[in-house]
């Protein structure tokens, strides 16, 4: 054991003092509840009477629960549509906002602004915009183009795509991360490519995309985790309907916990979701190895 | 402890421990301090106690609620009532959290939430009020014993009725006048007013269906699919479900159920006199469909008498069409006290105040100021006169509609079956395609049956 100097010890002490608030907060409000939910998932607990140990029966029931599969498939469907949509639109917007034009910072602010509005408010806004009877969108479609607009959130086929469309106002932070990555790209590579006669699109495909691939991966994983946890839109706009088509996994979990008061069952649902997200993250990290380039790769 | 470092380390760990215990204490229980407060209050009888009264947010009731708090505090200077208003759709969730943390409100109406009385009763969240009622409460003298008995479970009272909403057929007088049709009857026993004649009337009232801007529908209702079957003498669940609170195996495929649902589907798709599922969903965003003025006849609960006051058209109430075995839902809501209430005596005093039918008492003013159907029979006469005047109907005719509804009524499903909110949601979701005309009634009922069975509601 190496001898520690007084300064090192003092520094260590400061570390513990400064970390203490976070540490205590974590144990009380995050770490503790997570552990407790794991324990609860093996019990039957209705909030009032004390939890009753039931072994793995919650998990067994879950695998027989039709709504469990329905909610899982709806959530995966949403994720498969929403993640590529968000990545693509925010990357395109980021590339456009990276051009040096007049009013650039104003535009950047405008495109980011919706992200600071609460999800509930944004959901209300969209639900009015897309109301099939009284909404602006369908009125414009009908009055200007004579098209009878779709049912959006009220029809089984269009409810999930409508929610994907809503991500237009929620992709601000993804866009900002892309923008930061784009700004750190070395200009000399582009100059060299221009001299070689590469077109704008080739430059984007051959230089930009490979260089920012770690950022694309990061945004994809974060976006995927967020998409699998989608809740607000269903809670505010559709209540899981119509015909269970927006009955997302976390919405079902919320229902079992706070409407049916089955905390044990809900905890089991939460842990299954955790394992699913964990597994999907590992798969994406592992599966993307071939396509993601790190500048200072140790290979 | 000569070494300053050791001393510091010691101080630091004390500090850490201290802060940790403070936080833990904060997230733990705040009861201890309350307990001592109660003890103090009891010992010297002067200390103020606070009881919490929780109600769903409703602008129509706010003035009445404030008046109740202030009049009670005036007559009970040692009690402070804290009124908490929770938005309706968050009521269950907020209540669950409060109950779990040991901070359940003292006085509340368990039927305000979708989960309903049965759920909270089964959970053990409600206090047995029998000892209090036995001790004598003059406020309950004129209460119909049948109403009190709704919330009597295994010989014990768990609630004191505050309101007894019935179900009526509301009709838009302006639309009837424009079509030149006489208003529907107020006599529930008039067999010529049945679903066939209702359909004929609805056809005359409907026009431009399909054109979102001009369409008028002859008929719609706020009934659940199960309640629709009641109107035809059917029922989706077994009788035991309503007495034991346990849903058990549903009984969906009865011919009467199918007849009732098919009739409602035909109103939408065959006769085009009722809005389809998507139209209902879209207009729900605006609030009550009847208030849009685009619905000629609308079957709904007695709260409409209060909330339709703001309608910009004239309306009235009539009998629900006749059918052999017809039953309509009645919605009797009780005041209950939490099983864990720390001040049950004061809470009971407050319940008595709320249930008092005397002028300026809670029940009187609820009828008079808010306009809701009283539970106390002593108030009926006053209420008939008042409502008749407000909707320009003869008081006797209004009385006939209301009494007919009570005679043909049965207690609402969500008050009696545990976790009915989940059953209802399952019902609405599974039958959406049926209302959309994309699935047959029997297929919809089959899929509903599967979903209900896989929910494990009896756990």
TrEMBL record, chain A:
Residues 72-284 form the ABC transmembrane type-1 domain. It is a multi-pass membrane protein. Its main location: membrane. Signal peptide: none annotated. It comes from the Bacteria. The chain crosses the membrane at residues 15-42, 76-97, 109-129, 159-182, 211-231, 268-286. The keyword ATP-binding does not apply. It is found in: Cell membrane. Belongs to the binding-protein-dependent transport system permease family. This is Spermidine/putrescine ABC transporter permease. It comes from Paenibacillus cookii. The lineage of its organism: Bacteria, Bacillati, Bacillota, Bacilli, Bacillales.
From TrEMBL, chain B:
Pfam families: SBP_bac_1 (PF01547). CDD domains: PBP2_TMBP_like (cd13585). Gene3D superfamilies: Periplasmic binding protein-like II. Transmembrane segments: none annotated. PROSITE patterns: PROKAR_LIPOPROTEIN. It comes from the Bacteria. SUPFAM superfamilies: Periplasmic binding protein-like II. InterPro entries: Bact_solute-bd_prot1, SBP. Residues 1-25 form the signal peptide. The keyword Hydrolase does not apply. Keywords: Signal. This is Sugar ABC transporter substrate-binding protein.
